[in-house]
Amino acid sequence: MRTLMLSANELNTAKIAADIIKNGGLVAIPTETVYGLGANGLDESAVAKIFEAKGRPQDNPLILHVSRTEDIEKFCHSIPQAAYALAEAFWPGPLTMVLPARDTVPKRTTAGLDTVAVRCPDCAITRDIIALSGVPIAAPSANISGKPSTTTAQHVHHDHDGRIDAIVDGGPCRVGVESTIVDLTDERPRLLRPGGITPQQLKAVLGDLVIDKAVTASIDHDAVVKAPGMKYRHYAPAEPVVIVSGSREKAAQYIRKHFEPGDRVLCFEEELPLYEGCAPLSYGQEADVDTLCAGLFAALRELDDPSIHQVYARCPEGDGVAFAVQNRLKKAAAFHVIDAEVEV
Ligand code: AMP
Ligand code: MG
Questions:
Q1: Domains, the chain, with CATH or none
Q2: Does any ligand 1 atom lie closer than 6 A to the CB of residue 37?
Q3: 150 CA distance to ligand 1 centroid (A)?
Q4: Which ligand has the nearest atom to the CA of 195?
Q5: Is the pTM of this model over 0.85?
Q6: Near ion ligand 2, which residues have CB within 5 Å?
Q7: Does ligand 1 lie within 6 Å of residue 113's CB atom?
Q8: pLDDT band at 225, cuts 50/70/90?
Q9: Which of 20, 46, 143, 344 would be a feasible disulfide site paired with 24, CB 3.0-4.6 Å?
Q10: Radius of gyration for the alpha carbons in the chain, expressed in angstroms and rounded
């Protein structure tokens, strides 16, 4: 199969992409979070192709992308007022809501659950593709399963050239990590995955929010979890990653002492001078956490190289968007954190 490369700036791109979706094909779509691998979310066999192309476990459900809020009523029932309040505040934007699913949504899309995740992305070309195709687009992140997510069209090309019908190039993703997921099917709203919309922003609208334990801790592979994707090893380069926490100086001392040839250091731009000779790679500025968020996956992809022995990573402290960076980096590190204030 030849994979079409389409530019978001070309006038006929939305129509070409929408036609592929209508015909049951696979199109990688840009969004403000990460690139998604999209198909008609109401077509079981089209959705099956997503799982096949990614090598995605069958029990990991997809997100249905809509072009406008009112469309969720076609795919969800018993929608609480809170969902409309969140849509009003954050859509189009990097927020996914889990709601009770209607029978119109195939079980393949929801991985057999009776709930469905829905989102309206903040990316005009992708909303045009959805609207022109006349169906919701089911899309997980476009990376091969288990690998760092795709934040440029080139990342998608690397993983899927010759295996999917088209890639729409909309430039690098603005947010850089997947959407915040909030489950609205329980008595209390529950954060299943942190992202560009922060817990503080959600609480300001909802008044209440439970943070699911899978957000901050490692989950047993056999565990029954609310967001099934959370139990898999995620975002991981080929070699082990360890997070080194603590002050800039203590962390540098620890890493420089343990560093061996073939290791790499993933750090903040401000720290580069501290790691001279230790093959440092910066993923953004500690002083501007949005840049860390936007740069994390591209950096993890660069470090996905079997010749690398071990990666020492620095992780931002604090809440807000830093919470999402911590979550993704800890998953890449399989929750392996060394405190340089304690260990030497
Ligand atoms: P991805 O965008 O590649 O991370 O994949 C979508 C993620 O959305 C999945 O891994 C799940 O964690 C989450 N998700 C999708 N549908 C549901 C659902 N019905 N209930 C809970 N989580 C969901
Ligand atoms: Mg993913």
A1: 4-216 (3.90.870.10), 241-343 (3.40.50.11030)
A2: no
A3: 16
A4: 1
A5: yes
A6: 140-141
A7: yes
A8: low
A9: 46
A10: 20
